[in-house]
Amino acid sequence: MIEQIIDFEVAREAMVECQVLPGGVRDTKLCRVLKNIPREAYVPEKYKNLAYMDKNIPLSGGREVLNPLVLSMLVELADIQPDDLVLDIGCGLGYSTAVLASLAGTVVALENDPAFVESANTVLQNQNIDNAVVVEGDHSAGQPKQGPFNVVFIGGMVDEVPHCLLEQLDENGRLVCVSTYENASRGIIISRHGDSFSVNAALDVTAPKMLGFEKEEQFSF
C-alpha cells in the first residue's frame, strides 16, 4: 500500500479556511497563529496524516488531541492578551500550549503523564517556543505557586471545576473549559471578580473527557 503524502502547509491553510472560519471563529490573530503552527509535530507519528482533519486524535492512556475547531473556539473564548499568564491544563503533546504561547506572554502547561511532559517540552523547544514550559502534576490541583493566572485553560470536558483552580485566577481572570451546563455540553467561561465568579455558557461544543478531576470542594453549575 502506498502511503499518501500530505502537503502539511496546504492542509494547515485548509484547516483554517474550511473548518475554523466556517465554524464561527473570527479572531484574525488566532487564525494566523493556526496557519503557522505545525499541528503534525504535536501528534503521534502514526496519526500525522490526520493532523488537520476535523476530528480528535488518539493519544495513549485514552487521551485525545482536541479537534482544531473546538480548540479554536475555546481559545477565542478565553480572549488571550499579549501579557497574559496562562495555565494550560492537560496539554497532551503540547499543541494547545503552542497555540496559547503564540498569543500570551507566558504559558505554564500542566500534564499528569510524564511521557507527555517530556515529549511536549521537546517539541516546544524544537519549534523555538521559549515562553512556555510543561510541568508534571495533578490536573485538578493546578499550579498555585506559579499563579495567579490571567487564564486557566482546560482542553477537555470536566464534570465540575475544582474550587482550587478558581482560586488561582487573578482579578478579572478567566477559566475556560467544556462542561455540562443545564443538561447540555457547553464551552463555558468563568470570570473572577474579587471573591465572586460569574459563569457564561457561551458555546455549544463537545470535547473528550479530561481525566484527573476529583469531586471535592468543587464549583457546580
UniProtKB/TrEMBL annotation:
Keywords: Methyltransferase, Transferase. Belongs to the methyltransferase superfamily. L-isoaspartyl/D-aspartyl protein methyltransferase family. One of its GO terms (molecular function) is protein-L-isoaspartate (D-aspartate) O-methyltransferase activity. It comes from the Bacteria. The keyword Heme does not apply. CDD domains: AdoMet_MTases. InterPro entries: PCMT, SAM-dependent_MTases_sf. One of its GO terms (cellular component) is cytoplasm. This is Protein-L-isoaspartate O-methyltransferase. The keyword Amino-acid biosynthesis does not apply. PANTHER family: PROTEIN-L-ISOASPARTATE O-METHYLTRANSFERASE. The lineage of its organism: Bacteria, Pseudomonadati, Pseudomonadota, Alphaproteobacteria, PS1 clade. GO terms for biological process: methylation.
